[in-house]
């Protein structure tokens, strides 16, 4: 088992990474001075697979737990489901000392974290991420929230969990496409922070795609350590934390113009990273050989590196980006790499150059 600490003074916490961790959740929670009662919030895919195990572990350690299962999918990150969870907490007479267990992918982590941040002005919560994306990214760092009809993640709070359990065994049931989507964020950590890790990923990629748990454990731990380091320096994204958005400026726009249907998050971010790498060559001194390595690694992960869009959709993408708040005077702000393992944020790129690079990717 590996452990990574997120250093945030009084709000510091441990991330545990290992196989078959679900059985030890109860025992571990005992060490966190939590109350006796808790609510496990999970979704309709994950609940039937792992809910019982988590419940059994909690009750064996003397906790009284109830499970609330919400519909799987992004549309669950809503006011409506958050209110349903709040009502369930009240109906079960959960108190200030009670805690929430978020069992699922990033959707459940964001939703349950937000519910924890707001119920009775804040109750403790622990994260049990069950997708690769959630294990390497969303469960760490304390961003919680829900979507509005006018946009994603528009309501939320910075609210740190008390502990994170990354059980690698839960990834066994994850569909291939979801696993690959998570690998996109894994590659991102190499690009933004650690060239040695990037080169290691080049070696490990076949083992990762093949779900070898030793390789998965190594990379989940490294990604969590990088995220912990970044968040420890800039918890509320006043500066450095923005580097985690490498590939996300175009990636987010791509998700939006395709109505969150065509691409999974990691897939859109893969294309976004290829575009950001090419812009980095034009604007930040990245060599074309380094940009090619990035593209090759994403391809090896089975991720898309080209825009499979019609011309009309590319134009909508450019238009959506031009209308974005981050754009002024035809200039967009990007996170760009000056070399492998090092990025800068707030780089101004003319929209014309973005257009040029996007058309290269069609
Ligand atoms: N808070 C943050 O810092 C942060 C960072 C990145 C992404 N996010 C958010 O995370 C969300 C995406 O997370 P995600 O990709 O984990 O999506 P998700 O939670 O929707 O999970 C993807 C799918 O896999 C299923 N699933 C989860 N674990 C499984 C398992 N072990 N076996 C089988 N099926 C399983 C889910 O039910 C769902 O259908 C988005 O809402 C995004 O905004 C948040
Ligand atoms: Zn992302």
Please provide a written account of the structure.
With 362 residues, this protein is an alpha/beta fold. It is built from 13 helices and 11 strands. The strands form 3 sheets. Strands 1-2-9-6-5-3-4 form a 7-stranded mixed beta sheet, with helices on both faces. The protein has a two-stranded antiparallel ribbon with strand order 7-8. Strand 1 and strand 2 form a beta hairpin. Helix 5 (132-138) packs parallel to helix 6, helix 9 crosses helix 10 and helix 9 crosses helix 12 (311-323). The radius of gyration is 20 Å and the shape is globular. The termini are far apart. The mean pLDDT is 96. The structure holds nicotinamide-adenine-dinucleotide (NAD) and zinc ion (ZN). Nicotinamide-adenine-dinucleotide (NAD) is lined by residues 43, 45-46, 49, 72, 74, 77, 104-108, 110, 130-131, 133-134, 137-138, 141, 143, 152-153, 170, 173-174, 178, 265.
What does this entry show, briefly?
The chain has 362 residues and is of the alpha/beta class. The protein is built from 13 helices and eleven strands.
């Amino acid at each position: 088992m590996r452990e990574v600490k997120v250093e945030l003074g009084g709000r510091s916490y441990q991330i545990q990474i290992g196989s078959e961790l679900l059985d030890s959740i109860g025992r571990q929670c005992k060490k966190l001075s939590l109350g006796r009662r808790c609510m496990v919030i999970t979704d309709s895919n994950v609940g039937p697979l792992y809910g019982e195990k988590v419940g059994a572990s909690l009750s064996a350690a003397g906790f009284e737990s109830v499970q609330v299962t919400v519909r799987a999918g992004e549309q669950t990150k809503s006011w409506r489901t958050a209110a349903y969870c709040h009502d369930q907490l009240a109906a079960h007479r959960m108190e200030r000392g009670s805690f929430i267990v978020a069992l699922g992918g990033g959707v459940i982590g964001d939703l349950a974290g937000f519910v924890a941040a707001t119920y009775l002005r804040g109750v403790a919560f622990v994260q049990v991420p069950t997708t690769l994306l959630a294990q390497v990214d969303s469960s760490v760092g304390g961003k919680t929230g829900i979507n509005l009809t006018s946009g994603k993640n528009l309501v939320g709070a910075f609210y740190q969990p008390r502990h994170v359990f990354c059980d690698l065994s839960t990834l066994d049931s994850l569909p291939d496409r979801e696993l690959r989507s998570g690998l996109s964020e894994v590659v991102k950590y190499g690009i933004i922070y650690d060239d040695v890790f990037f080169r290691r990923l080049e070696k490990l990629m076949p083992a990762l795609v093949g779900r070898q748990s030793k390789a998965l454990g190594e990379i989940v731990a490294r990604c969590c350590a990088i995220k912990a380091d970044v968040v420890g320096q800039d918890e509320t994204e006043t500066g450095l934390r923005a580097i985690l958005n490498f590939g996300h400026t175009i990636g987010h726009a791509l998700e939006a113009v395709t109505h969150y249907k065509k691409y999974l998050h990691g897939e859109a971010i893969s294309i976004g990273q290829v575009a950001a790498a090419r812009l980095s060559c034009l604007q930040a001194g990245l060599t074309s050989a380094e940009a090619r390595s990035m593209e090759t690694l994403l391809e090896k992960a089975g991720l898309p590196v080209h825009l499979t869009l019609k011309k009309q959709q590319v134009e909508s993408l450019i238009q959506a980006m031009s209308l974005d708040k981050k754009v002024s005077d035809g200039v967009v702000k990007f996170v760009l790499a000056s070399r492998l393992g090092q990025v800068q944020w707030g780089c101004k790129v003319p929209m014309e150059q973005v257009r040029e690079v996007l058309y290269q990717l069609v």
